[in-house]
Amino acid sequence: MTSLETSPSEPIHNLPSDKQENRMSNAQSVQTARAVGANKPQAAQTEHVAEVLKVSTRSRPSAVAGAIAGVIRENGMAEVQSIGAGATNQAIKAVAIARSYLNEEGIDIICVPSFIDVAIDEEERTAIRLLIERR
């Protein structure tokens, strides 16, 4: 592993800024996120607790797909987050590849996209959130 790569099991608590995104090469994981536009009081908000995989433009779709498939096998649900067109493209390709991996085992998945707000360097950014669940 080079100094510019991080371990896929190493937790990251914020999505990468443009500078940080260039250093990411694989999916990064954290524990939870909240959907954008949730105007309900904090206690009434629905939060999905799932493994969160953060994808960058440089993430390898096959590596992310393997991570998605593993999380789905273990938890039945995974969450993928991306910022920007390139990262979102890699994330969508990873979901398609993960689906083929899981279909070999008789598992089918669905993907529900949404927007979320994330704080990066004390700034709010909008990310794409893909909630992936067993069908």
Automatic annotation (TrEMBL):
Protein name as it appears in the record: Stage V sporulation protein S
A Pfam short name: SpoVS
Annotated PANTHER family: STAGE V SPORULATION PROTEIN S
Coiled coil: none
InterPro entries from the UniProt entry: Alba-like_dom_sf, SpoVS
Region (Disordered): 1-46
Comp. bias intervals (Polar residues): 23-32
A molecular-function term among this protein's GO annotations: nucleic acid binding
